[in-house]
Amino acid sequence: ILWVDGVGGYLLADRDEVTLGQAIAGSSVDIGIVGDIRRKAGVIRRSGADYLLQPLQATLLNGQAIDRAQLLRHSDLFQFGERVRLRFTQPHPLSATARLELVGLGKFQPHVDAVLLMADSCLIGPQANCHVRCPQWNPASAPLTLVRRGQDWFFNATQELLVHGVPQRGLIAVVP
Predict the structure, then answer these.
(1) Burial of residue 125, with CB atoms counted within 10 A of its CB: 0-12 exposed, 13-18 middle, 19 or more buried
(2) What is the reported pTM?
């Protein structure tokens, strides 16, 4: 989970395939949702910069019933069952990372504001095309980029940051 002070919490899902479903004890889903859905409601698969939604229960995509895998596009709205609605966005054209937000009834478990379907980079900043919007940041500041190098994650800071009280810039290792 990525917590950004004053902004919120984000579940980082860094696999090419994630399962969405009911958040119950012993569940094998990657993205748990507290809501009126099946134990396994759907699967999202990433292939390059494309995402496919495979429904495993009654599902609407932009108001139309689907029963097989469908390509997700920026700002698509999909619904599992009667009430659990999610918005899929890919805010930055140069990053394959996508964002899922609940816009209907239901809550993510663990409680987070959104899920980031991580590719190799994620932008955090005040601009509208950032995956994590930080409206209180200086609008002129460059976004902070979260990047993957092999199995490790780094922040790539073009501006100086204080990390544990020490000024740093460039690649800064993310330490859990």
Answers:
(1) buried
(2) 0.91
Has residue 86 got a pLDDT over 90? yes
Nearest to 126 by CA among 87, 162, 88, 159: 159
* CA 98 to each of CA 16, 67, 115, 142: distance values in angstroms, whole numbers, following the listed order: 12, 22, 8, 20
Of how many residues is the chain composed? 176
Q: Give Cα 43 distance to the centre of its chain.
A: 14
Q: Is 145 exposed, middle or buried (0-12, 13-18, 19+ CB in 10 A)?
A: buried
Interval 132-173: pLDDT, tens: 999 988 888 888 999 988 888 899 988 888 887 889 999 999
Cα 55 from Cα 65, distance rounded (Å): 10
Structure tokens at 44: 């999202």
Characterise 99 by phi-psi region: left (phi > 0), alpha (psi -120 to 50), beta (else).
Answer: beta
Tokens 């698509």 belong to 76
Instruction: List, for residues 6-54, the tens digit of each pLDDT value.
Output: 899 999 999 999 999 999 888 889 999 999 999 999 999 999 999 999 9
Quote the tokens at residue 115.
Answer: 């899920």
CB-CB neighbours of 98 under 10 Å: 25
